[in-house]
């Protein structure tokens, strides 16, 4: 069987093309994220793989859970359901976001801080990171007290770890080498 990301790519591209032509990238990003969340539920996975559940019933379940209002989104979901590709929704959503970010010249940044950050601190860190990475960043922040101090940032596959824990590990490695 083909890998999920291979299956997801053409669907994500098609969704991006439709969303771009409709000038609705954010709407589609939310729609795909919601659909992926629904599809990831174990109960929905079980229903999707039940041969006694028709495609129309599965489509109705998704429409009710997500609140689909646009025909293009309804048609997209119908295609996925009819082709048995509901399990690929998470990968489709991820690939769609990659297309969206590339188009907008932006990226997601996940900041993990040792302590809760004020909005002004997040704005300052985000501004500095935007200069470093050369693109607009959509920052999300979480707290991990095990960092001891400082923060760690992940942008795509790049990680910038400025935490005290990481510095202590580097010092330990240098001293024991």
UniProtKB/TrEMBL annotation:
A UniProt-annotated Pfam family: OSCP
PANTHER family in alphabetical order: ATP SYNTHASE DELTA CHAIN
Annotated GO MF terms: proton-transporting ATP synthase activity, rotational mechanism
Topological category with respect to the lipid bilayer: Peripheral membrane protein
Family: Belongs to the ATPase delta chain family.
Keywords on record: ATP synthesis, Cell membrane, CF(1), Hydrogen ion transport, Ion transport, Membrane, Transport
Subcellular location: Cell membrane; Membrane
Coiled coil regions in record: none
GO cellular component, one term: proton-transporting ATP synthase complex
The protein's name: ATP synthase subunit delta
Naturally occurring in which organism (per UniProt): Formosimonas limnophila
Gene: atpH
Function text: F(1)F(0) ATP synthase produces ATP from ADP in the presence of a proton or sodium gradient. F-type ATPases consist of two structural domains, F(1) containing the extramembraneous catalytic core and F(0) containing the membrane proton channel, linked together by a central stalk and a peripheral stalk. During catalysis, ATP synthesis in the catalytic domain of F(1) is coupled via a rotary mechanism of the central stalk subunits to proton translocation. This protein is part of the stalk that links CF(0) to CF(1). It either transmits conformational changes from CF(0) to CF(1) or is implicated in proton conduction.
Matching NCBIfam families: ATP_synt_delta, PRK05758.2-2
InterPro entries: ATP_synth_OSCP/delta_N_sf (IPR026015), ATPase_OSCP/dsu (IPR000711)
Regions crossing the membrane: none
């Amino acid at each position: 069987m083909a890998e999920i990301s291979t299956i997801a790519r053409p669907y994500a591209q098609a969704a991006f093309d439709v969303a771009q032509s409709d000038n609705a990238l954010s709407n589609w990003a939310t729609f795909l994220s919601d659909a992926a969340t629904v599809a990831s539920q174990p109960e929905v996975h079980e229903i999707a793989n039940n041969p006694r559940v028709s495609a129309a019933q599965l489509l109705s379940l998704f429409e009710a859970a997500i609140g689909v209002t646009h025909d293009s989104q309804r048609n997209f979901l119908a295609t996925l359901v009819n082709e048995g590709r509901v399990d690929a929704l998470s990968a489709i959503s991820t690939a769609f976001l990659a297309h969206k970010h590339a188009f907008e010249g932006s990226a997601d940044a996940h900041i993990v801080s040792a302590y809760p950050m004020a909005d002004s601190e997040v704005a300052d860190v985000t501004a500095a990171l935007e200069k470093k990475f050369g693109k607009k960043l959509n920052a999300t922040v979480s707290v991990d007290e095990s960092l001891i101090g400082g923060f760690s940032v992940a942008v795509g596959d790049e990680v910038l770890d400025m935490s005290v824990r990481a510095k202590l590990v580097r010092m330990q490695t240098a001293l024991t080498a």
